[in-house]
Design a protein that fits this description.
Elements: E1 5-9, H1 16-30, E2 34-38, H2 41-47, H3 57-73, H4 91-102, H5 105-119, H6 126-135, H7 140-147, H8 150-166, E3 173-176, E4 179-182, H9 187-196
Parallel strand pairs: 1-2
Antiparallel strand pairs: 1-3, 3-4
Helix pairs in contact: 1-5, 1-9, 4-5, 4-7, 4-8, 6-7
C-alpha cells in the first residue's frame, strides 16, 4: 500500500498554484492518498529572515515567467500576473485549515487559486471570499467566524509547528513520513517515494 502523502501548502504561494491543479490527478493515477495541510509558510520565512521575492525584482520576474511556462506545460490556465503578495491576515489560509478539517479543502483551495490567478481576486479579501464560499454552497458568515475562532487558529498554528518540525521552509512541500520534497517540480518524485516507501 502506498503511504499517504502530506501536502503542505500556503494560499499565497505562487508555485502552489501549479501544485493544487496537478496533485489530484497525479496522486490518483498512482493510487497515493493525499492529506491537504495548510500552514503558515510566511511565519516560518519570517523566522528565517527569508523573503523569497520582496526587493528582488530579477528573481520575481523569473518566478512569474517560470510559473507561466510550467502552467503551459501542464495545460493549466495562466492569463496574467495576479496581485502579489496577498492575504496579510492569512484569513484564506485559516479557511483552508477549516476546510481540511471538514473535508472540502481540495475544492476550496483550487477555487481560491482560480479566483486569484484567473480573476485577479485577492485571497483573503472578505467580499471575494464570501462570494467564493457561497459558490461552494457554504454559509460565508459561519465559515469566516469558524476560521477566526481560537480552535481553527490553533489548528493552523499546529500545522505550522508540524511543518517546522519536519524542516519545511517553503510552499508547496510534499512529505512522506520525515522525507520532504519542496516545490511543484518535485511532485512526481514525492509520489514515487510514497509508492515505494518501506517502513
Amino acid at each position: 500500500m502506498p503511504r499517504a502523502l502530506d501536502f503542505f501548502f500556503f494560499v499565497g504561494s505562487t508555485y502552489t498554484y501549479l501544485a493544487v491543479n496537478r496533485i489530484g490527478d497525479v496522486a490518483a493515477k498512482a493510487g497515493v492518498p493525499v492529506r491537504w495541510r495548510p500552514f503558515s509558510v510566511r511565519a516560518i520565512m519570517r523566522e528565517q529572515n527569508n523573503s523569497p521575492f520582496t526587493g528582488k525584482p530579477a528573481k520575481m520576474n523569473y518566478m512569474w515567467r517560470d510559473v507561466e511556462r510550467r502552467a503551459k506545460r501542464y495545460s493549466i490556465p495562466f492569463r496574467s500576473i495576479p496581485p502579489y503578495p496577498v492575504d496579510p491576515d492569512e484569513l484564506a489560509n485559516r479557511v483552508a485549515s477549516l476546510s481540511s478539517l471538514e473535508g472540502w479543502c481540495p475544492e476550496y483551495t483550487r477555487s481560491m487559486y482560480r479566483c486569484w490567478f484567473l480573476e485577479n481576486q485577492t485571497p483573503g479579501d472578505p467580499e471575494g471570499l464570501r462570494t467564493l464560499l457561497r459558490q461552494l454552497g457554504k454559509d460565508p458568515d459561519a465559515v469566516i467566524a469558524k476560521a477566526n475562532s481560537q480552535e481553527i487558529r490553533g489548528r493552523y498554528a499546529g500545522e505550522t509547528d508540524a511543518a517546522r518540525s519536519l524542516g519545511i521552509f517553503g510552499s508547496p512541500t510534499f512529505a512522506c513520513g520525515s522525507e520532504i520534497f519542496w516545490g511543484d517540480d518535485r511532485l512526481e518524485d514525492a509520489i514515487e517515494w510514497s509508492r515505494t516507501y518501506d517502513d
